[in-house]
């Protein structure tokens, strides 16, 4: 640093180095105190021994520069006789355990954007960076909390894709008649075995008249409100309601196609291979029938299913014989034809939601598109994979689990428990009886007060939103299920009566021959009556002329028309409104899959958090390693400080009384000065030392001061190093303590050194 001790250029360089501003700290030249104002003794050559060899002098701290060596544990001190000995008391940095020291270490250890700017620079810039780091950290924490809460909500979105050449299970088809009464119903009403609609309407009018006669106007509209088909159904015995409805004989013919090649016709739909028919009781349509595949393998191979359905008996043209003079409010919903629904096999059909009207006398083609739903099982909205244990019962029919039916069943159980009746629109886990009737039953043990109580209780449970929300939470949706989006197209069917008849006869004869062959495998089939009837069919020249009753009777071995398989042409009702043709087919072999995905999945959450951290304060995954590094360095610093403190305590000698030349006391005073203040006893010692030096320049104190200065300024290199240490010391202390001006006692040492150069 210095190349020449004697010369104006070198001294000028030293003065410029000591006077330059340091990191924004205002440098003030302070006059050195009197204790160190005396001129520095000249540097004399070091004494040599007898051999003439130069003896190296160990550096000693100078009283004129108390601030420099007290921070250096490797420095030495001079005794009374001018000898240099190591300090017995190691220097301990008392600030290593403070919060500011830990903060400085953290700023140096972390890569967080802006943290390193908080230690250096002007106050304005440090304040600016502090505001930036604080605001960005607050923004980061707030946005991260909101993002995590959004993730824990587990919101999902529905994605759609088409699976090509993916055979889905063939759906079930439920068929109900708008006119629900069968041919047998009129005979039952005529024999008074079952209450007819006409008599039920008469009973309602008489009851209303009795209410008005007693001035009870609570249900003055009783006869109008209760004169509906579903109320009539609720006042029947469940077995009688089944007897009044249609049975499977209403279906003339069934056909199915497998893999676009194998076709099967059946005159009795119960014989259709791979299918089963389930009959259930409905409060509006009485008996409905569901055609559904038996197994999943059978359902995946079916491509086409058709039905020829009769419409049932016509309404009586004679008012005297009409047993259906009732149901006046139903005039707005009465229709002619069928009500069909396409739904998943094994499930309870919802005719209100999925029902389609089928026009009689027309070809009604129903095309469906299978939709596979895949729900996501999340903690907030869990789903269920049902099995046999989750099935429920509606009267005598068992259905598979569904969320909608689970909700309805829970409501029904509450109504049964609190109202003492069964609501006909929901699944009925128990068969109604006198002790637990339908809620609208007015025929058995009827009182007006009881009816009013039931209606009020029923309305309360149906309109209780909070209770219904609890039920919806208890019933989970199914994870995987199929839905069938169906469309119907109607056109004129140009089939002729003789074609329908002979197709039915052919199916009957073939089935009869197969049965006879199975019963008697050794018998000659040509001698059987089944073969004679089949031969009559095969040898017939024209199909346009249908056989009459007498012709069919001759073919029967006993002459009984009941044993004749087939119907004579006189009994066929093939008018335009007497039948309906229903076709159910796939649109394609493709399947539309709708599956749920999380809006904010874990990878997306991490990606967004990473972008937010990078945008705000530049926080990365390495911050975790930096935090560990900071804790490690902080712990090691505190451990080193404790070790030095223990060592200092062991080596520390008692401080002697304040006498002139006492180096231990001098070190004590220097430390007190370094802490920012000087006591009266230390000030007295300083003055005594200065007075002794002025009275006797050759005294022991003068020798010690000469020792100190000579040891510090022993060479040009030592002089440059000491001056550089002085400057750096002042700068670092001013930055750490955040002071705008250097203390006089710190700048005095460097100023004295500069003036004496």
TrEMBL record:
<dbReference type="GO" id="GO:0005886">
    <property type="term" value="C:plasma membrane"/>
</dbReference>
<feature type="region of interest" description="Disordered">
    <location>
        <begin position="1"/>
        <end position="82"/>
    </location>
</feature>
<keyword id="KW-0915">Sodium</keyword>
<dbReference type="InterPro" id="IPR001873">
    <property type="entry name" value="ENaC"/>
</dbReference>
<keyword id="KW-0407">Ion channel</keyword>
<keyword id="KW-0894">Sodium channel</keyword>
<keyword id="KW-0812">Transmembrane</keyword>
<comment type="similarity">
    <text>Belongs to the amiloride-sensitive sodium channel (TC 1.A.6) family.</text>
</comment>
<keyword id="KW-0406">Ion transport</keyword>
<dbReference type="Pfam" id="PF00858">
    <property type="entry name" value="ASC"/>
</dbReference>
<protein>
    <recommendedName>
        <fullName>Amiloride-sensitive sodium channel</fullName>
    </recommendedName>
</protein>
<keyword id="KW-0739">Sodium transport</keyword>
<keyword id="KW-0813">Transport</keyword>
<feature type="compositionally biased region" description="Polar residues">
    <location>
        <begin position="45"/>
        <end position="59"/>
    </location>
</feature>
<keyword id="KW-0472">Membrane</keyword>
<keyword id="KW-1133">Transmembrane helix</keyword>
<feature type="transmembrane region" description="Helical">
    <location>
        <begin position="127"/>
        <end position="149"/>
    </location>
</feature>
<dbReference type="GO" id="GO:0015280">
    <property type="term" value="F:ligand-gated sodium channel activity"/>
</dbReference>
<feature type="compositionally biased region" description="Basic and acidic residues">
    <location>
        <begin position="69"/>
        <end position="82"/>
    </location>
</feature>
<feature type="transmembrane region" description="Helical">
    <location>
        <begin position="609"/>
        <end position="635"/>
    </location>
</feature>
């Amino acid at each position: 640093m210095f190349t020449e001790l004697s010369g104006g250029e070198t001294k000028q360089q030293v003065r410029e180095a000591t006077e330059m501003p340091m990191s924004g700290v205002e440098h003030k030249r302070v006059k050195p105190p009197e204790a160190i104002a005396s001129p520095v003794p000249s540097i004399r050559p070091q004494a040599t021994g007898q051999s003439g060899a130069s003896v190296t002098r160990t550096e000693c701290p100078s009283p004129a520069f108390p601030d420099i060596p007290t921070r250096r544990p490797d420095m030495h001190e001079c005794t009374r006789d001018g000898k240099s000995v190591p300090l017995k008391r190691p220097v301990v940095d008392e600030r290593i355990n403070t919060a500011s020291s830990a903060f400085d270490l953290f700023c140096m250890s972390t890569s967080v954007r802006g943290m390193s700017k908080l230690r250096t620079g002007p106050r304005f810039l440090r304040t600016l960076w502090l505001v930036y780091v604080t605001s960005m950290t607050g923004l980061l924490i707030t946005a991260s909390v909101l993002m995590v809460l959004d993730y824990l909500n587990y919101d999902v979105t529905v994605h759609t894709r088409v699976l090509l050449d993916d055979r889905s299970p063939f759906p079930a088809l439920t068929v109900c008649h708008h006119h629900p009464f069968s041919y047998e119903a009129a005979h039952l009403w005529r024999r008074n075995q079952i209450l007819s609609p006409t008599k039920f309407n008469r009973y309602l009018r008489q009851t209303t008249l009795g209410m008005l006669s007693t001035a009870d106007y609570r249900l003055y509209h009783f006869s109008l409100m209760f004169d509906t088909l579903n109320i009539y159904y609720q006042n029947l015995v469940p077995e009688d309601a089944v007897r009044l409805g249609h049975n499977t004989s209403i279906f003339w013919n069934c056909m199915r196609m497998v893999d676009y090649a194998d076709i099967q016709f059946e005159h009795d739909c119960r014989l259709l291979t791979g299918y089963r028919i389930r009959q259930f009781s409905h409060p509006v349509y009485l008996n409905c029938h569901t055609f559904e595949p038996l197994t999943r393998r059978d359902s995946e191979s079916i491509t086409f299913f058709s039905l020829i359905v009769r419409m049932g008996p016509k309404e009586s043209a004679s008012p005297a014989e009409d047993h259906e003079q009732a149901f006046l409010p139903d005039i707005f919903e009465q229709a002619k034809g069928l009500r069909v629904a396409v739904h998943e096999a094994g499930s309870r059909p919802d005719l209100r939601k999925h029902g389609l009207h089928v026009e009689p006398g027309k070809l009604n083609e129903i095309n469906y598109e299978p939709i596979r739903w895949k729900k996501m099982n999340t903690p907030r909205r869990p789903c269920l994979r049902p099995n046999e244990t989750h099935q429920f019962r509606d009267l005598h029919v068992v259905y598979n689990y569904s969320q909608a039916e689970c909700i309805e069943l829970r409501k029904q159980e509450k109504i049964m428990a609190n109202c003492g009746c069964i609501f006909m629109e929901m699944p009925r886990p128990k068969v109604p009886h006198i002790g637990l009737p339908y809620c609208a039953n007015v025929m058995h043990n009827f009182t007006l007060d009881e009816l009013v109580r039931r209606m009020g209780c029923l309305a309360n449970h149906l309109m209780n939103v909070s209770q219904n929300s609890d039920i919806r939470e208890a019933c989970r949706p199914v994870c995987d299920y199929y839905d069938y989006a169906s469309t119907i197209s109607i056109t004129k069917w140009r089939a002729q009566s003789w074609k329908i008849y002979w197709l039915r006869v052919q199916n009957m004869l073939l089935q009869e021959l197969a049965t006879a062959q199975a019963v008697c495998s050794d018998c000659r089939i040509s001698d059987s009556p089944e073969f004679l009837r089949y031969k009559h069919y095969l040898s017939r020249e024209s199909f346009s002329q249908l056989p009459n009753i007498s012709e069919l009777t001759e073919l029967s071995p006993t002459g009984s028309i009941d044993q004749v398989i087939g119907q004579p042409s006189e009994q066929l009702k093939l008018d335009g409104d007497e039948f309906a043709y229903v076709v159910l087919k796939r649109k394609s072999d493709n399947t539309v899959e709708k599956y749920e995905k999380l809006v904010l999945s874990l990878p997306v959450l991490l990606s967004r958090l990473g972008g937010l951290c990078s945008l705000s304060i530049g926080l990365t995954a390495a911050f975790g390693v930096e935090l560990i590094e900071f804790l490690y360095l902080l712990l090691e610093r505190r451990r080193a400080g404790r070790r030095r403190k223990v060592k200092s305590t062991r080596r520390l000698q008692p401080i002697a009384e304040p006498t002139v030349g006492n180096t231990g006391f001098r070190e004590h005073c220097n430390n007190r000065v370094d802490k920012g203040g000087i006591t009266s006893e230390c000030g007295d010692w300083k003055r005594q030392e200065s007075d002794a030096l002025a009275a006797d320049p050759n005294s022991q104190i003068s020798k010690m001061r000469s020792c100190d200065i000579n040891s510090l300024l022993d060479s040009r290199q030592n002089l440059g190093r000491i001056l550089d240490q002085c400057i750096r010391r002042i700068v670092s202390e001013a930055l750490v303590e955040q002071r705008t001006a250097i203390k006089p006692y710190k700048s005095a040492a460097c100023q004295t050194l500069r003036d004496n150069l």
